[in-house]
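hey so i finally got around to running both of the ones u sent me last week. sorry it took forever, my laptop kept dying halfway thru and i had to restart like 3 times lol. anyway pasting them below in the order u listed, first the sequence line then the structure token line for each. didnt double check formatting much so if smth looks off just lmk and ill redo it

first one:
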Amino acid sequence: MNAPDHAALPREDRPADRSADRPAIVARGLGKQFGALKAVDGVDLRVPRANVYGFLGPNGSGKSTTIRMLCGLLTPTAGEIEVLGFRIPEEAEALRRRIGYMTQKFSLYEDLTVRENLEFLAEVQGLKRPQRKVRIDALIEAYDFADRQKQLAGTMSGGQKQRLALAGAIVHAPELLFLDEPTSAVDPESRRDFWEKLFDLADAGTTILVSTHYMDEAERCHRIAILDTGRLVADGTPAELTRALAGRTLGVRAPEPRRAQSALHRAPGVLSVAQIGNELRVLTAAGGDAAQLQAWLRQAGIDGEVMDIEPNLEDVFVSATSHRTDPARAA
């Protein structure tokens, strides 16, 4: 079922220069340092409105730190941020009621019922009593809680808690929604359902920035930024990023795939070798090709067939993060 229409809630008048045709988020040279550690280092972002924009990166890559700065929860060490036309952190308070924020911990009150959680969050967000009832009724219907309104949040499954947390994050119909690894604690079916709801929200005009470490989720985003050791190492649509790897992703069929894999790990220009069933998936640096891999296998005394295959987002991720120096990381 579709998410409720955000137009059902009135918004305060905006200054004229905060135009809806500008990006939802613009960051320039964004940095955050904790002592000697650079958690975020010179990140530039432009997030279009009404898009699902993915943050992809390993644990400790700076995703959560960046999101907290964009929300106004952390003060940057360097750089400039504009979110929905507001300067952050200077205008963070004015921005607060125009954004929603959901973390992987599902910020719910487990000793309150489904409806009581939504009522409390709506009151915190300043919705008037008549608005609260209309909005909560719509969310309960849209998020399939009609028969669970009186159920304590603490007794629900992980997927149900996730849906309730999302409903709570959008109870005030925010223009921009920040989601920090929101699907890390739920099953695959709940994850799929959750993403359908995200696209309902985007279709209704909400801009969504979501961090994830799941490749299948990142592939669903309109646009992706890959962070590694606090730096932005790739930014584009999934199609743009995979297209840039054309010719560098190769498949290998060999009678002894483990032996072939060991040999290819030592080959010049090979960034990664992964076994998929009885075949190998090989990612090379720029300039690598099938003929070079074939020659290397023959030199190692291995009879194998090498062919070009279509790159995927995991290949993009490996390529973008292949020069990691592995310093201490921040969340």
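and the second one:
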Amino acid sequence: MRYSARKMLALTAVVSMTAAACGSDSNDADPVTTDAVAEAPVTEAPADEAMEEEAEAPAEEEAMEEEAMEEGMEEEGMEEEGTEEEAPAEAAAFAVDDGASSLRATLTSLLQEHVYLAGVAFETALDAGGDLEEPATAAAVAALDENTVALADAVGSIAGEENGEAFLGLWREHIGFFVDYTLGEATGNADMKAQALTDLEGYQQAAGAFFEEITGGAIQADVLVGGLEEHVATLTTAIDALVAGETDAFDKLQAAAQHMSGAANLLATGIVEALPDTFPGATDSQPAEVRSTLTFQLQEHVYLAGIAIEQALEAGGDLEAPAVQAAVATLDGNTVRLSETVASVAGEENGEAFKGLWREHIGFFVDYTLGVATGDDEMVAQALTDLEGYQQAAGAFFEEITGGEITPDALIPGLEEHVATLTAAIDSLAAGDTAAFTQLRAAGQHMPMAALLLSTGIVAAIS
């Protein structure tokens, strides 16, 4: 593994542009997989030349940035000295689409996705009796590996292709250790479980050293290892519950995913510290917080909805089955948190209104699922009509609470895409089509774009 400042400066510019592309109107845009990063030619410009270009920015622009920061500090009653470390940066100084905000949101999406896709793959393998060659299991594992490749592309765009490849091997290896743990737990093989945990401890040390090296010490190995220990603890707890068929398995999987938000912030903060000119902004700014929170909660909605729908289909449409009710309860917890986020910026009354609107649209997806599963075309058609009505209502709602910063014309196409991608995944789940896993991932990947649109409007409204 070799740390190259030149590659980091040249390639991180590519990932910054890719993250900024999350706001594209194109349905083909992929804000998470960073395909553009993987395919883009690498320009090995000298580090000092790159920094000279940064230094040539107009002095007026720098003065404006400094003035904005000073004004923001005066409004909060803070003194200039020491405030950068003592308090989060305010919206006046930073934006939801600056380098730091985009990096944090991208890592939040990728790392959360890793946990949910891993959980889905493990559950699918358990349903197949541990047969990793069974088509559904192989498809679920392939979707998980797509996330792995996307993460490696992101690392490679920051630290160079060689380090990206090193990370790819390291990450795939740690997933293999989780598979070993799952199989050991499922078969009662205590030695296999113990070896998997030992291997995961070794992975933690290797990953800590890796990120310390590629960030030049901005991310300290011992700090990262502590987070990786929590990742192992929370995910193995979820695996134990999945193997045992416990109804709280979905809550435990959600807890494992929620841990990744902090991990993403840790990594993003270290990378921004190592490359402040490449990733301008602050990972703890108000815009970064808003965008990261919405990215996490909206993407989580898709994965928890997919899990709940899959459980309902497995139960033959019996919404009273314990596993179905548990999955739906976990999904509703996400709804409550989303409504709390809305309430935090628009008041309790609007938070409650959003909660009702959001729960209603989930019900329409349930109706669609049951209609597809039972061949009831009228039910399917009515669900789609109801979802169209939801799109109009949601567009009007967000226009009102943001004072026109978010318009229905801007929001509704994204909601249409949400319906299109999630119903496509539902169709495949109902048909037993192995494409369901990649389609669910596509539905999840759409949500970071929605989060960028919403956070841009919300920050503009409250700034």
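quick thing i noticed on the 2nd:
Residues 1-45+97-272 form one domain.
anyway thats it, ttyl
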